[in-house]
Amino acid sequence: MAFLIYNMYAPLIQHIRRFVPLTEQEEETIMKVLKTKKLEKKEHLWQPGQICTALAFVIKGCIRMYITDTAGNQQTQQFAIENWWIADYMSFNMQKPTSYSVQAVEETTIILLDHHLMESLCSQIPSLEQYFRKVMQKALGAAQQRIQYIYSLSKEERYRQFSALFPDFVQRIPQYMLASYLGFTPEFLSKIRAKKV
Amino acid sequence: MAFLIYNMYAPLIQHIRRFVPLTEQEEETIMKVLKTKKLEKKEHLWQPGQICTALAFVIKGCIRMYITDTAGNQQTQQFAIENWWIADYMSFNMQKPTSYSVQAVEETTIILLDHHLMESLCSQIPSLEQYFRKVMQKALGAAQQRIQYIYSLSKEERYRQFSALFPDFVQRIPQYMLASYLGFTPEFLSKIRAKKV
DNA sequence: CGTTTGCTTGAATTCTGTCAAAGCAGGTGG
DNA sequence: CCACCTGCTTTGACAGAATTCAAGCAAACG
Fold it and tell me: CA–C1' distance B190–C6 (Å)?
């Protein structure tokens, strides 16, 4: 049983170890408070109006965070695959209701880290605080670059660049999700694809 | 002299204290390694090709980070005013050359925190590590929201919303910078402004 | 003052969105 | 195991938002 639990959390522990050192005792302290959760395809982790009480770390599968506008269109703000953290950080940081939906794109297993547990664990284990600082700093760099791409590339260029960078991921998700993530309509994506074969 | 130095760093110390507690000794340790720098209007802190070896914290004035595309157009990626940190986090994290220019919009005084000093200070002072984790987390929330606005609002709406939220800031900077920050051309901004008086 | 820099205006153009209809596919129930 | 049904993708005609280009003007600066 202990072996099974270890395996569940192993991807996260490994991920942490890529950034900071961790004693076995710290490792155990962390694993003791974590929870895993399995989501079926299309199942929601959070819905608009709820508070994102936890960060989610994807062990296997794919999660997306999207917003539904007044016209009913879904706009995907973020994807997370294996070894990525995902959350509406506005909601998580302030512990206020989110306007997003967080949903499994495919059958997905995640680790959940509650807000208050994150705070107490970080105070307890300096390495973990450091880990999250580094992860956040890295995510911030990625966010800056994403904004840069949005502004400097046309929508068609954005698609071509994205599918060149993540050819397998593009296959993995429905086109309408990708289109909304890249900031345009599914129809337009379809036309881009039709053009150059 | 000690008094003068205290005053220079006071805004940052206060900012840190808004997030975490800090002993007087920790405070001194931090201030001992910080440097301030004064930039004239249009003076550059970093130029493309350089490594962003330090984070910058604005004490007074305004800094922008922009990229120059192949056609020579400047695209403003970020502004920072009083009490904001600014950096190309990609360059800073990896300590690799940046593609951005970081420039003073007006006469500006900043505090510089070197990458290696940040790392050693954070290891030394857990509260500081926590501060930066929280600041990064907050910045990430802001970045998510910015992407959301870019996707869900038209360019005209984006301008109207921004100038409603920051009416004084809009006055403070040239229009072409604002236009490029919001992701459109100066001509278009001019036309928006002409429409509804 | 003259020169540079930034702002305005208008016309033509391009890119992307909207709408509507039809095609396709994959899952579900019979 | 097949047929249906729902949801996703494709296609085409048209509309509109925003850009580009070019010229003129105003303001700031040395």
Answer: 11
Domain ranges of chain B: 2-124
Give a three-class secondary structure readout of B121-148.
Answer: HHHHCHHHHHHHHHHHHHHHHHHHHHHH
Class of domain B2-124: mainly beta
Q: What is the pLDDT of residues B28-54, one digit of tens each?
A: 999 999 999 999 999 999 999 999 999
- Average pLDDT of every residue of chain B: 94
Using beta carbons and an 8 Å cutoff, which residues of B are at the interface with A? 67, 69, 75, 77-78, 88-90, 92-93, 122-123, 126, 129-130, 132-134, 136-141, 143-148, 150-152, 183
Domain A2-152 CATH class label: mainly beta
CB pairs A-B closer than 8 Å: 105
Chain A residues in contact with B141 (beta carbon < 8 A): 88-90, 92-93
* CA distances for A119 relative to A28, A116, B6, B142, angstroms: 17, 5, 31, 20
Report how far residue A73's alpha carbon sits from residue A124's, in angstroms, rounded to the nearest whole number. Answer: 43
Which A residues between 133 and 172 have a beta carbon under 7 A from any strand C atom?
Answer: 154-156
- pLDDT of A26-76, one tens digit each? 999 999 999 999 999 999 999 999 999 999 999 999 999 999 988 889 999
pTM to 2 decimal places: 0.94
